[in-house]
Amino acid sequence: MNDFIQLDFPSLLLGTLAALSCGLLGNFLLLRGQALMGDTISHVVLPGIVGGFLLAGSVAALPMMLGALFASLFSVSLIELIKRAGRIEAGAAMGAVFTTMFALGVVLLEQSGARGVHLDVEHALYGNLESALWLEAESFQDLLSFSKLFSLPEDIWVLFFITLLVILFIVVFYKPLMITSFDAAHADSLGISSKWMGLGLVFMTALSAVAAFSAVGSILVIAMFICPPATARMLTDKLSTQLWISGFIAVLSGISGYFLAAFGPFWFGGQDSVSAAGMIALMAGFLQVLAMLFAPRYGVLSRLFFKNRFHNQ
Amino acid sequence: MSALSKQSLIDETGFISSKVAFDVSGLTVAYDRKPVLWDVSFQAHSGRITAIVGPNGAGKSTFLKASLGLVPAVTGQTFILGEALKEARKNIAYMPQRASVDWDFPASALDVVMMGLYGRMGFLRWPSQHHREQALSCLDQVDMADFAERQIGQLSGGQQQRVFMARALAQEAEVYLMDEPFAGVDAATENVIFKTLKALTAEGKTVIVVHHDLDTVRKMFDDVLLINRQVIANGPIDDVMSDEALRRTYSGRLGFHKAGEPVGGAAVQAHV
Ligand SMILES: Nc1ncnc2c1ncn2[C@@H]1O[C@H](COP(=O)(O)OP(=O)(O)OP(=O)(O)O)[C@@H](O)[C@H]1O
Ligand SMILES: [Mg+2]
Question: Which CATH number is correct for A2-142+150-312, 3.40.50.2000, 1.10.3470.10, 1.10.10.10, 1.10.510.10?
Fold first, then answer.
């Protein structure tokens, strides 16, 4: 049990928080046809993170985080610029920017490799969930002790506050987020600025992508921006319900994915655990496939069923 | 048409007796430096229903959007009941073309009508039972109360149009600007929407409608704005909607048209 609280619990928390913050924001990205935005940001943060690392000369969270935030805001502006100046469609502009920025990140990484600090491409793709440790903890009771909780890794705290911020953002701006996502022109006519709401959303997306990225890597970030909201959309026609379901699915993927990765291989007689971030993303995808098949109204099976019944009558 | 002749028309008919509620002056709009609207001035009067008529691509939608500041204008000003646009948001209800939104959005008919209330609801206010009832009564006015909980994508085109109408009603505005509310609807829906608009004008509200069907313009509207990149005519239908004016609206003799753009269709020829 000691092992669990020291080794597994922090990783579990990190993965779940990352899934939750990205999964919730993804709802609005999806509704605005900006699913690629999560993808973009999770790639463009790489040069920022490496740049921050190179400048600071150590793997400190803050400079890397600032670098990442700077890189994502820079990229978003660049995308806008390319869209307007080059009259290029949004998807193409995002694609151009994020591949270039990611490539820049990889090149910078090679430079950093020379300094012999742990920062590599795999880390960027899969993150490093398992490295989160809480050695100060002794038992579950420590979860109730403030002083002990403060000894949780910095990464977790950062992600925790950002997740709180995301939830607060969605609750406070629920109405403007909804109306600007549904009908931007109508929202603007009411004096609810779709532009500012869109910028706010991109900023929050950048913030949570950056915080999640260093913990869980780009694959999980991308998966979480898209899978839980897309799954939830199949299960309801109401936005508030969709938000709840997507949050639930994000947490479910986080927990089940982590357990399967950490303990699953042993249950099947394997030796090593597999990448937790990868497994969480896999679970999110798996849940989405389930929803696509079995969702009451939009699922493939129920549609087939109703179609057959209709034909037979 | 010169400003002078327009003025004289107005004076003859006593057009000016009702209050100017919507006043746009010198509106010029360009997309990518290509002018779409050129020096458009237009006035609509309270208690009257105005049709905006012109061929596809004439800039009708652009006119509505730019006059509300939804797309940037090169020049031009809008006054609503004497107030500048910024102060007058609450007095405007704008209804975009139906095709402009994603009907797969996870919202019910009632949710969409509630959005009409957001402008007046405080920023942090959560919609209450009172707001729900208000929205429901707006749906009821367009005979859509039975569909309140239906997801909007599962409504017919005409029903969607009615939901949009109800959302505009919920705004309790003074000036209603509707972009093609009658496009693709059947006689029953046309009737409901028309009656609703008429009821608004009876309360002294101002209604401005982009309209495509030349056959029904005379029957349904009081005033007309004939537009094709610039104003051809603006005033009471009986005075300004001459065959000559219509021909000028639809024949594209204004020099703005480029090859390949629609210039007046069969509808005009049949009419003129
Ligand atoms: N976002 C845009 N960017 C560039 N050009 C545009 C844009 N929107 C409209 N246009 C152009 O401006 C002109 C006017 O368009 P607008 O939509 O205002 O016409 P409309 O009178 O409403 O036409 P319709 O009857 O088809 O609705 C058209 O030539 C159109 O191609
Ligand atoms: Mg139009």
Answer: 1.10.3470.10
Neighbouring-strand partners of residue B22: B44, B80
Residue tagged 């950048």 (tokens):
A206
CB contact under 8 A, A31 and B105: yes
Asked whether the beta carbons of residue A233 and residue B106 sit closer than 8 angstroms, the reply is: yes
- Ligand 1 pocket: which residues have CB below 6 Å? B 31-32, 36, 54, 56-62
Task: Name the helix (H) or strand (E) containing A8.
Answer: none
pLDDT tens, residue by residue, A52-95: 878 877 666 678 778 888 888 888 888 888 887 877 888 888 88
For the domain B2-254, what is the CATH superfamily, name and number? Answer: P-loop containing nucleotide triphosphate hydrolases (3.40.50.300)
Q: Is A85 on the interface with B (CB under 8 A)?
A: no
Q: Which residues contact A260 (CB under 8 A, 6 or more apart)?
A: A279, A283
Does the complex come out with an ipTM higher than 0.90? no
Q: How far apart are CA B64 and CA B114, in angstroms?
A: 23
For the entire predicted model, the pTM comes to 0.85
Chain A interface includes B107 (CB < 8 A): yes
Alpha-carbon gap: A28 to the closest alpha carbon of chain B (Å): 11
